[in-house]
Amino acid sequence: MKKIGIVLAALFFAFLAAGCEQQAESYHKATAKGRMVEAETNLPAIVAMQAGFKAMNQKFAATFQELNFSLSGNNQNYSYFMGDDVIKGARGPDKLPENLPNQPSTADSFVVYAIANLDDDADLDVWKIDQNGNLQHVRSDL
Fold first, then answer.
1. Residue 44: which residues within 8 A CB-CB, separation 6 or more?
2. Which domain holds residue 35?
3. Which of 84, 136, 71, 82 has its CA nearest to residue 109?
4. Which of 14, 69, 108, 119 sits 20 to 30 Å CA-CA off 76?
5. CA 13 to chain CA centroid, nearest Å
6. Are 81 and 64 contacting, i.e. CB atoms less than 8 angstroms apart?
7. Has this prediction a pTM greater than 0.90?
8. Which residues face 94 on adjacent strands?
9. Looking at residue 32, what is its pLDDT?
């Protein structure tokens, strides 16, 4: 009888551990999805700022400093890239990945990337927006 009780207890704890692991994975995915809101919010804001800059200067800004755009706080996850300019985020790379084209701003066009590793794996989450406000989720990290 003791052996049956030990086996049942072991099975119970195995199922409990599997359930906890599944819950933890679900939590991490939900947290990472919540972090994506940062890119979905900041990229359209950059487009709006660029539109104002162009109305005043007849060209788009080439750098974030020229645009007067910065990240507030220490909890920004994404790195933002516009041409050779970068604003480093806590979970973002220092450099634009080689597989993405570096597209400097011109008088008539610009592209901004938001890139982060949201769940600490090898994959990056990549967002892109252009002067027309076309927002693309180029690659999901989830």
1. 129, 133, 135
2. 2-139
3. 82
4. 108
5. 37
6. no
7. no
8. none
9. 57
Look at the chain and report how many structural domains it folds into: 1
Q: Which two tokens stand for residue 121?
A: 């794996």
Whole-angstrom Cα distance, residue 81 to residue 119? 20
Q: Which ranges of the chain have pLDDT less than 50? A: 7-9, 11, 16-20, 24
Strands (E), the chain: 79-82, 85-87, 111-116, 125-130, 135-139
Distance from CA of residue 85 to its chain's centroid?
17
Token duo for residue 59: 């060209």
Q: Look-up: residue for tokens 């027309």?
A: 132
Alpha-carbon distance of 28 to 47, in angstroms, equals: 30
